[in-house]
């Protein structure tokens, strides 16, 4: 299951101050970025394996239960990277 972040753009969308995505992609699912593990791979994807932890800037849609992402846009997330957001 993906782990979406909460970005400033998401806040603007929820406050109805960033309406463009709502008009372009109904039904609208918010979510600017995502980190998760690969649970399926298409035959054309190379360089990744099932279980790899990856990130993507989806701009929309990362708050869905599952995301279908393009392999050429994924970034590998190193082991040990803490996904919690802690204030400094």
Structure description:
The protein has about 90 residues and is of the alpha+beta class. The chain has one domain (about 5-75): Alpha-Beta Complex (Quinone Oxidoreductase, Chain A, domain 1). Helix content is about 15%, strand content about 15%. A 4-stranded antiparallel beta sheet has the order 1-2-3-4, with no helix packed on it. The longest helix is centred in the N-terminal third of the chain and has 7 residues, at about 10-15. It is globular, with a radius of gyration of 14 Å. The two termini are about 30 Å apart.
CATH architecture: Alpha-Beta Complex
Q: What is the CATH topology descriptor?
A: Quinone Oxidoreductase, Chain A, domain 1
CA-based shape: globular
Uncertain parts: none
Biggest sheet, strands in spatial order?
1-2-3-4
Question: Radius of gyration in whole Å, from Cα?
Answer: 14 Å
| Number of separate helices | 2
Fourth-level CATH superfamily: Medium-chain alcohol dehydrogenases, catalytic domain
Major sheet attributes? 4 strands, antiparallel
Helix percent band:
10-25%
Mean of residue pLDDT values: 80
């Amino acid at each position: 299951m993906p782990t979406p972040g909460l970005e400033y753009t998401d806040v603007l969308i929820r406050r109805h101050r960033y309406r463009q995505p709502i008009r372009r992609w109904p039904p609208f699912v918010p979510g600017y970025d995502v980190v998760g593990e690969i649970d399926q791979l298409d035959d054309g994807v190379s360089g990744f394996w099932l279980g790899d932890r990856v990130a993507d800037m989806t701009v929309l849609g990362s708050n869905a239960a599952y995301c279908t992402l393009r392999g050429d846009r994924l970034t590998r997330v190193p082991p040990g990277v803490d996904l919690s957001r802690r204030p400094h």
